[in-house]
Structures are given as C-alpha cells and as structure tokens.
C-alpha cells in the first residue's frame, strides 16, 4: 500500500461554498446525489476521493455531463481535467448508488439492526460519494434524507420535514469526516439546555424503543459537560439541537459528528442492574469527550491526519479534567496513569512505537492509538505545567480566537503558546515528533555537614522504529521532600530538566529527606532510582501528593512481584505496609482500592524486561496469585471488616463516593475469596444488589471455577441484553485460570450468540483472551493461534477492528524463543492471507519488522 508522508502535504486547489446532499435510503441501492459549489484557489484538475463501492450514475459540471475524454474514474479517485473546468465558481454534481446492507466494515453508510447510520472519520465519506475527503476542506452542508423510517437525522439544525423526508442545514463549515446521517425507528430522551449567552438548545438521545429507560445517565452527563465547557473554557454550544444516537454495531467508542454524535450503545445505555460503576464513569467521560470535540476538533479541526493528536490529545486532556473535577482528582490521575502505562508505555516500548504526531502511515485507522490519544493528553498536561496557569489560560483563549473555523497543525498549536507566553517551545516540540518513553534516572548525594541534597538526573530514550537517536527533551519534574518522620520539608517544586544530565541541589536540610519524585506524574517517563523499601513505605504512609503516595506502594508491590516471578523470595514489605493503609479511616476508599490493586501481569513482564531478563508469563501469574493470597492471609480481619463496612447504603448511585466504596469492597472480596473458597462471592452474587457487585462476585467465582450456576442465571436473565451478554463472554476467559481460558473461549465462540461481526461481541470474547496474559502467551502457542484464527476470519469483514486487535501481539519480542516462534508463526499466517486488508497488512508488517 501507498505510504503517506507528512511532508507531502499540499492544499486542495478549490474552496467549497456549500455541499448539498440528497440521500434516498435503501439497504441496497441507496442513491446519493451530491452538488458541490466550488471555486478555484490554485492550479490543477479536480480530484475527488471515492471507494470501490460507489456505482457512479452521473457526473456533471454546472448541470452538464462531463465529457468522458475529461473524466477519469479510477479505483479510489475521480478526476475532471482542468480543461473541463470553468474559470468562475461552478457546481460539481454526482449521482452514485451504494449498498449499506453489505457494509460490514462499518465505515461510510451502513445498517445496524435495521437502522441506517454513518461513520466517516477518518476516511469513510469516500464510501458514500465522490468528495475531497480530507479534513482541511471544510464546507457548510445542506442534506435531504429520504426514507420510510420514522426518524431521519443529519448534522446541524432541522430545516423542514415531510412524509418520508427531512432536510438539515449545518451552517458551520466542516470537513467530510464530521458528516453524519441516521435513519431508524428510534425514540428520544429529550431535554433542554440554555447556554451562557441564552441560546436554547434541544437535547435528544436517540435509542431503540426498549432502551429509553437506560439513557438518563447519558443525558445527565451531557448537560454536565455543557456546563463544564462554559465554566472551564468559556465555550458554549453553537446549534439549536444536539443529537446523540446509540448504535449497536460500531467500530470504536463514539464519534463527534457536528450536532449529531453517534455512540456505541455501550457508551450510552446504563441502569444499575445492567451497567457497572466503571461503565457509568466511562459513559460520563466519553459523552464529555465527544461534546468537547465541538470546539477542539470541529470548530478547530486538523489540517491532515498526521495532526490527529491536535484534536484527540487536547480533547482527552479536557475530558480527564472534567472527570477529575466531577469525581476525585487524585483517583482519576492514578487511573489515567495506570491506563497510560498499560497501553501507551507498552506501545512505546515495542515495534509499533510512533510519535504523537507521526510523519508517515499507510492506513490512518491504525493510528488511533494510545500514543496519539493518551500520550497526546500527557503532552498537553506538561505544556500546562511549563507555561503555568496564566500562560495556559491565555494560550487556550488565543487558540480559540485565532483558529476558529480553521484546519490546523501542531505548529499552529505551539505558536499560540509561544505568542501568548513568549516562551520558546522548540525543544518541547520533540514530545510531538519523537517516539519512545524517556527513562529518567536519579541518583542522590547527601552532604550531612552542609545539610545539602544534590539530585543527579539523567535522561535517555531507547531507539524506536525509524528514530535511532533521541535528543534530550524538556521534562517537568515535580518533586517534594519528606523528612524521616513523615513531615513535608519542601513542598512541590517544578524542576525543568532540559539536558541529557542535570543536577539540582537543596540546602538547609536538617536531616536527609526522602524524595517524593514525579509528583502528580508530571511527565510521561519511567523513573529509575535506588530506594529502600523503608523509604517507599514512608512515602506510602506520609506523602502529601496522592499520586506519589500511591506510586510508592505500587513500586513496593512491583519490586516484590518482579523478584518473585524470577524465582526470588517475595519481599514482605508491601504487605506489611498495607496495614497502615487499611487501618487509615481517613483515606478515600477508592484510593485504598487502587493501592490494593496489584500491578498487572503485563506490567510485571515489562518490569522484568526492563531489568534485562526474559519474563515467564506462567511464573508471573503464579507470583501475582501468591502475593494476593499472602495479603489476604496477612490482613484477613481488616479486609473482612472493610468488606462489611464498604457496602453503600441506600439506592444505587454511580457517584464517586459510593462507587469508591464498592471498589474497595470488591477489592477486599477478591482477596478474601482466596481464603473462603468463594463463600462471600457466592452470597454477594445471590443478593445481587447491582451489576457492579454482581460482576465483582462473578469474577471471583470464575477464578475459583465455581461460577456454573451464576453464569447460567446470568444467561437466562439477560439473554436479550447484548451489553450484559458481552460481559458474560468477557468474564470467563479473562478471569479463568490461564490453563483453561483458551478452551473456554473456544467453546464460547461456538455458541450461536457469538455474533462475531458485531465489534462489541468480538472484542468481548477475543479481546478477553488477549487480556489474560498467561493464556494468550501460553508456551504451546494455543493463545496466539486462537486469536490469529479469529483475526483472519474478521479481517475480510471488518479490517479496522481486526487490525486494532492485532496490537495484542506487540509484546512478542520480549518473550523466550519458543513463544517468539509461536507468535511469529501466527503473525506470518495472517500476513500470508490472500486479500489481507491494508489495515492488517500494515500492522503485521510493523509488528514483525
Ligand atoms: N474521533 C473519533 C475517532 C474515530 C472513530 C470513532 C468511531 C468509529 C470509527 C472511528 N474512527 C476514528 C472518536 C473520538 O476520538 O472521539
Ligand atoms: Zn476524540
């Protein structure tokens, strides 16, 4: 496939005054008539993007058919020669036919359970009609939708409607990727919002008729998001209506189409008996994320797809701030860092590493990654730390005013902050252009006589594909100093490291303090320092920074697990230190639950790799299980008391308080079930107060291999609820003992309700195997084979989802020779598939490179 390069950017040589679409829907033979009002802005022919599925019936310029001598229709483009184009403004019109019923890739216009819907980001619009399908070409849209279905929606404001048709007008110029159309038998949960300038906005969440009673939380989240963006950034909504539609078949989470957000139904529908606390929190944050895109993504969009993190990194950053304001900032920060390390650090350490702003790609859909999204957000957090609060506010204001209505680049973004603050951001830009996670080492010199502590920092970044050398970056290092008795002797300081090696000294210290390093996770780096278990325990007990406090406990656990998984004796320090945490009634239960959550098997494997050894997934699993059992034995009475005390009283609420209590209760349950044979878990399942606790109980039962009755009950109660049944498919392979997980997954895959063309169901089952590391990385290759088999089946139907899941293989190079060979064989089988998609071909090639 063709490699696209950042440096090859050229503007399109036309401007669009207006795009008109008239779409007559049918499962097969949907007719799309387009009329595009154009004006030349540079030399060249008129080249439109399009896909193989378009049956072109007519192409006209100013109403006259284009002379075939001047018209070239190729596989992916339509060209009208310059000679056939008028010098003045003109109208290009086309009529094409497409078949949404055959669209299993879920890009462009497709059918989901009898409902027509679209997904156009990144390059789906070209499957609907001929168009300049690039984000820097923006136009107001006028759309007529024709169908017998009762609800007909598109972007913008409704203009008129009659029997079988509806007209919509979106006055805000937008690129084609933000186009959307929906038609179906839908019901709306309706509400209203008055913006800060007094605009009345009609809010609708459209769902299938039976789902209305599960849309209330999403509506609440939408209104909270609208208020927050006004208060935090002064941004208000700009149309008369805001529509959200829930769809069952969807490749990702949700899509920010202007005025018509389309959501995976799992990110809209929630009730206490069907959704967990984590589901609720995710719904809240994704509703916010898509809503925030209205300014960071839609009003100001990307010049090209290399700039994807311009909108995604910033919008993730904004949704993280929103959740942190609504819930607990400390807990949110820890959760975000856990997720960043699990997905982005892992990506950065493997063959798929790329910068937040890549400079080449074959298939853009492969670049909706943790690096673009989550690292993109971390880079923005660092920028804020470096320019300070006033600089941040001034920069954001300038960004919104200077670039409203434009398609921008990372250079535009950085120039705004340079202009607003006078700060040179040339070195900071490396965070956007360079891949890899910097490794920060710190050594300490203590001068007892002078009372001076000198910290010697060094940074290095390992080579990544295509980037052998890494110059130093600017790293904001937040630190504080804690005295041996736990008092803070130096509150948080923000150091700026700019060189490969740098020293910082602190004077007038009475006794040697303990350094609380990288407070708030002030930069996305890995930290290496020598530190005693006693000092870590001191920080866990006393650090004023909640992130650093949690990190101290996490490091204790990680060190113990890394040692145990390599055959060493497990250090009892972590379990011992937990006594203080479990006994401290002032701590937020959600925080305590996070301290109790052991490092993942994948994180332990990465820790072993970082120490230059080869991880053994089976031993890692055993070490983790064994530490959990030790903790349970060491703290049984305290855990049992917490389990009882943390039962929230009153009706279910997904708020942070009760959700945090449940998370601690279930953490205690998970540990206690190692001692009580699952008695509490069974009792909790039977009492079944809400889905959060049911799933916590079920996970413990599956792990103990005594979930048969519970699973049968779940199935009979929820056979008609796809979202709950997805949980049924996930929990078994993910929580089962690794030796049984693949066999369980195979038998689940044989069930008639394993509707593998539905991305949620596919991810629920096949993704669950990849999330059980000792099963996926089984030495006999059975995990790799199972996943590869299913990816090969999915690829022809839905390349985007298949390619995305291939990232499960990205850690293959760190394993032993037997596993490496098994993984390579599986990947090579995929690579050898006839007609493998461009998406999967690119992924396999990069993973094997
Ligand atoms: N901007 C969207 C990214 C996206 C997407 C969403 C659904 C299906 C396919 C998609 N391709 C790209 C989602 C977001 O980041 O908000
Ligand atoms: Zn987004």
TrEMBL record:
Start and end residues of each Peptidase M1 membrane alanine aminopeptidase domain: 217-431
UniProt keyword annotation of Metal-binding present: yes
Entry similarity comment: Belongs to the peptidase M1 family.
Ranges of residues in domain Aminopeptidase N-like N-terminal: 115-178
GO process annotations (BP): proteolysis
One Pfam family of this chain: DUF3458
SUPFAM superfamilies: Leukotriene A4 hydrolase N-terminal domain, Metalloproteases ('zincins'), catalytic domain
Metal-binding as UniProt keyword: yes
Domain Peptidase M1 alanyl aminopeptidase Ig-like fold, chain residue ranges per copy: 436-529
Any one Gene Ontology molecular-function term assigned to this protein's record: zinc ion binding
Cofactors: Zn(2+)
Originating species: Paracoccus alkenifer
TM region(s), chain numbering: none
Peptidase M1 alanyl aminopeptidase C-terminal domain span: 534-849
Keywords per UniProt: Aminopeptidase, Hydrolase, Metal-binding, Metalloprotease, Protease, Zinc
Entry protein name: Aminopeptidase N
EC number: 3.4.11.2
InterPro entries attached to this UniProt entry: Aminopeptidase_N-like_N (IPR045357), Aminopeptidase_N-like_N_sf (IPR042097), PepN_Ig-like_sf (IPR038438), Peptidase_M1 (IPR001930), Peptidase_M1_dom (IPR014782), Peptidase_M1_pepN (IPR012779), Peptidase_M1_pepN_C (IPR024601), Peptidase_M1_pepN_C_sf (IPR037144)
Recorded catalytic activity of this chain's protein: Release of an N-terminal amino acid, Xaa-|-Yaa- from a peptide, amide or arylamide. Xaa is preferably Ala, but may be most amino acids including Pro (slow action). When a terminal hydrophobic residue is followed by a prolyl residue, the two may be released as an intact Xaa-Pro dipeptide
UniProt cross-references to NCBIfam families, sorted A to Z: pepN_proteo (TIGR02414)
